[in-house]
Amino acid sequence: MALSDQLTIGPASVDDLDRLAELEAAIFPSPWPRDALAAELLPSATSSETEPPAADRLLLVGRSTGETVGYALFHRVLDEAELLRLAVSPSFRGRGFGAALLAAGLNRIVSHGARACHLEVGAENTAAIHLYERFGFVEEGLRKAYYRHGEDALLLVLQPIPAA
Q: What would the mean pLDDT of 125-150 be, rounded to a whole number?
């Protein structure tokens, strides 16, 4: 079965918030509260019908057989973006869903003018680091004891973002 048959990706809605909060709590040592996720659904103050806004948010969800199994959250300001969250339910990992969410988000932010994407990832999160490296992200720095639980964060960048 092709990945496209198993996973659909689209914008998150208010109806997704409870499940996203569940995934946050299950995946991250310092999960974002539901209210913080809800704030990501608000329209950008610079939204326009005729041109992409100078700054925007992108919260995508991945669904498999009707269940929300992952999400990706990007912020873009002018020609730079940041991946703030990429999460896949532990029971759905290893199927390419994280890569699909990342690719969909990168394609979207490029279409809105982003030329670079930055992110922070736990230095011990080898699975995520390998995923980002496959996409061409490279290390640009280190934040010592960045996370509340004391883990260092690697700073990665993808520049330029390849066109799909």
A: 95
